[in-house]
């Protein structure tokens, strides 16, 4: 297939299939989690579960001093990676167009630099996983797959913008296809945390709230 | 053969014996002007500096090459672009110099005489003439959708290509099928390269292509006796090596994240990047941003309109001209709703199944007593 045809396919049918699988898969996973069902807690609540749940939704994004002092690099790297991904996906003007163009973005050069940092942070994350005996032991092929499919869109986007390795049209096409791969696989890997983090934080916070303990 | 045609042929033969240097002299172009042309042409073709001399020598001694121009499924825009003269330049003289023996839009002869002139030229310069094609070739139903003098384009191309030294496909239709090949492609249109396999082919795509690119290609052919270096899509690298985006004077606004969002907003008035208005500059390779149009006056982006990507294959099927390259084609909202509805349905069914499995397990649970555990099996 000639590259322009592949680009047309990537921007058309392939995108719609990928998006459909992503939406379908994510909803299926959320239903799966929600339908697990919990036994009713019959004990008298000491405090509000709702406020505990809401609080935890946000507090889990903040570092805990005790944990932070033990592994500052891992936590900092996690912040860099997640904030980097957010900036790259949602604050780059051509990407914003994808979401309807409703908000303003950052200068392209800034996004480019942040992309480079984010890519680096992903490799740091991989090395940390690899060099920590415990983490390496509990890592499955699913973890490495999730890492790879997150890295590919970042890498291809960076290479395309900077005209590296391949001609721009080709790299742009692979960039779009890599995003579609991410969309297709995200619901069936640990990347479900894209949405499920809300449920787990709420659940933990709610339980802790009812018991009147910190979460 | 009529008497008139004979005298025309005689005149033709006289002109053919003239070199390019003599032709320029006759048209009042100085040696200095000619050398200037050679320098700018070697620069445009990205040839080494020393090549200007080589080109000057070769061009000066060059004899009129026979050129046969076949127009198939096309709109004559390419001919318009290439023959449009803004001032009598040497570029134009190159066109005057070539012996354009057949071009059914431009030639004076018509009907039988025109076809005879072509046949004569083809026979006389068999194996040496340059064949220029504009327009795509319909192949469906035996190619009956476009015929000239009662013969299909398919047939005409096959015949003319057999005796050509090289074939130049001018315009996106001849190079990549263009508009006629766009969906639903009712005539089964194909580009020249799909049919001619045994001759060197150069594509000069664009809708229309820039005249100077054409001149450059002919100058190269006359100088070196072969076509210039080409990219994987058969385009001369010197003109199609860079993307419009990379050579665009508005590129700096792209880098700063400053975009026009409507054709009449502040950004448009300030000349900001047209990416969000659908500019296909990043994926389009052409010389518009450097050579420009109308004697270097302007090019589409400079006039405030996004690049349509007309020099790329399938540009007509690549979605809306006015949607950003990053925006997927088709109705995204509809896809989300449909997939969402299926997801909710299947998810609810899966949840119900889980629940019934769970309650069945609870109901079917056997009570185990301490005695059971103590029992030896």
Q: Please, could you describe this protein's structure?
A:
The complex is a heterodimer of chains A (215) and B (377). Chain A contains eleven helices and no strands. With 215 residues, chain A is an all-alpha fold. Chain A starts with a helix and ends with a helix. The model of chain A has no long low-confidence stretch (mean pLDDT 93). With 377 residues, chain B is an alpha/beta fold. Chain B folds into three domains: 3-240, 3-Layer(aba) Sandwich (Rossmann fold); 244-317, Cytochrome-c3 Hydrogenase, Chain A, domain 2 (Irregular), CATH 4.10.480.10; 335-374. Helix content of chain B is 45%, strand content 10%. Chain B contains 18 helices and nine strands. Chain B has helices spanning 3-16, 20-26, 31-44, 51-61, 77-83, 90-97, 111-124, 153-162, 171-176, 178-181, 211-224, 237-240, 244-247, 251-256, 266-269, 288-291, 332-363, 370-374, and strands at residues 66-71, 99-103, 129-134, 137-138, 147-148, 151-152, 164-170, 189-190, 201-204. In chain B, strand 5 (147-148) and strand 6 form a beta hairpin. The longest helix of chain B has 32 residues, at 332-363. Chain B is elongated, with a radius of gyration of 30 Å. The A-B interface holds A 2, 4-5, 7-8, 11-13, 15-16, 19-28, 30-32, 34-37, 93-95, 97-98, 101, 104-111, 163, 168-169, 172 and B 243, 245-246, 254-257, 259, 261, 275-276, 282-283, 312-315, 317-319, 324-330, 332, 335-336, 338-340, 342-344, 346-348, 350-352, 354-355, 358.
Strand and helix map with partners:
The complex is a heterodimer of chains A (215) and B (377).
Chain A: H1 3-11, H2 13-34, H3 49-59, H4 65-70, H5 72-90, H6 93-98, H7 108-131, H8 133-138, H9 141-161, H10 168-185, H11 193-211
Helix pairs in contact in A: 1-2, 1-10, 2-10, 3-11, 5-7, 7-9, 9-10
Chain B: H1 3-16, H2 20-26, H3 31-44, H4 51-61, E1 66-71, H5 77-83, H6 90-97, E2 99-103, H7 111-124, E3 129-134, E4 137-138, E5 147-148, E6 151-152, H8 153-162, E7 164-170, H9 171-176, H10 178-181, E8 189-190, E9 201-204, H11 211-224, H12 237-240, H13 244-247, H14 251-256, H15 266-269, H16 288-291, H17 332-363, H18 370-374
Parallel strand pairs in B: 1-2, 1-3, 3-7, 7-9
Antiparallel strand pairs in B: 4-8, 5-6
Helix pairs in contact in B: 3-4, 4-11, 6-11
């Amino acid at each position: 297939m000639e590259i322009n045809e592949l680009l047309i396919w990537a921007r058309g049918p392939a995108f719609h299939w990928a998006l459909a699988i992503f939406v379908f898969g994510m909803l299926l996973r959320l239903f799966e989690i929600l339908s697990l069902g919990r036994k009713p807690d019959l004990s008298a609540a000491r405090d509000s579960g709702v406020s505990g749940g809401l609080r935890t939704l946000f507090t889990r994004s903040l570092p805990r001093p005790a944990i932070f002092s033990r592994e500052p690099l891992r936590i900092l790297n996690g912040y860099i990676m997640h904030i980097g991904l957010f900036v790259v996906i949602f604050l780059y003007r051509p990407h914003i167009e994808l979401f309807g163009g409703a908000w303003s973005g950052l200068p392209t050069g800034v996004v480019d630099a942040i992309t480079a940092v984010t890519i680096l942070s992903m490799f740091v994350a991989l090395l940390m996983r690899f060099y920590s005996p415990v983490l390496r032991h509990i890592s499955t092929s699913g973890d490495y797959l999730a890492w790879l499919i997150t890295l590919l869109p970042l890498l291809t986007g960076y290479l395309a913008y900077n005209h590296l390795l391949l001609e721009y049209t080709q790299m742009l096409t692979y960039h779009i296809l890599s995003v579609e791969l991410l969309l297709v696989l995200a619901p069936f890997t640990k990347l479900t945390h894209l949405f499920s983090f809300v449920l787990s934080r709420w659940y933990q916070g709610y339980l802790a709230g009812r018991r009147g303990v910190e979460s | 053969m009529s008497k008139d045609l004979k005298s025309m042929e005689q005149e033709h033969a006289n002109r053919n014996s003239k070199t390019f240097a003599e032709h320029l002299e006759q048209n009042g172009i100085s040696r200095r002007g000619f050398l200037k042309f050679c320098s700018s042409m070697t620069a445009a073709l990205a040839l080494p500096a020393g090549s200007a001399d080589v080109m000057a020598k070769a061009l000066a001694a060059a004899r009129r090459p026979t050129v046969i121009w076949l127009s198939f499924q096309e709109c004559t825009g390419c001919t318009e672009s290439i023959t449009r003269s803004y001032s009598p330049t040497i570029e134009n003289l190159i066109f005057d110099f070539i012996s354009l023996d057949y071009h059914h839009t431009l030639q004076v002869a018509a009907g039988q005489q025109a076809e005879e002139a072509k046949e004569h030229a083809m026979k006389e310069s068999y194996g040496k003439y340059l064949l220029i094609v504009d327009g795509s070739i319909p192949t469906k139903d035996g190619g009956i959708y476009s015929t000239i003098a009662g013969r299909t384009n398919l047939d005409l191309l096959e015949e003319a290509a057999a005796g050509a030294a090289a074939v130049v496909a001018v315009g996106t239709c001849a190079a990549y099928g263009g508009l006629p090949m766009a969906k639903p492609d009712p005539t089964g249109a194909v580009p020249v390269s799909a049919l001619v396999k045994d001759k060197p082919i150069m594509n000069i795509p664009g809708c229309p292509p820039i005249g100077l690119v054409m001149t450059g290609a002919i100058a190269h052919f006359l100088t070196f006796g072969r076509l210039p270096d080409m990219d994987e899509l058969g385009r001369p690298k010197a003109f199609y090596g860079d993307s419009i985006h990379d050579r665009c004077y508005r590129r700096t606004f792209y880098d700063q994240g400053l975009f026009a969002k409507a054709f009449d907003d502040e950004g448009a008035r300030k000349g900001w990047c047209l990416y969000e208005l659908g500019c296909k500059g990043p994926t389009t390779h052409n010389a518009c941003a450097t050579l420009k149009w109308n004697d270097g006056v302007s090019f589409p982006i400079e006039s405030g309109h996004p690049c349509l990507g007309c020099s790329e294959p399938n540009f007509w099927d690549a979605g809306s001209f006015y949607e950003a390259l990053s925006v997927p084609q088709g109705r995204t909202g509809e896809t989300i709703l449909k997939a969402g509805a299926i997801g909710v349905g299947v998810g609810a069914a899966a949840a119900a199944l889980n629940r019934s499995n769970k309650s069945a397990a609870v109901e079917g649970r056997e009570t185990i007593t301490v005695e059971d555990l103590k029992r030896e099996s």
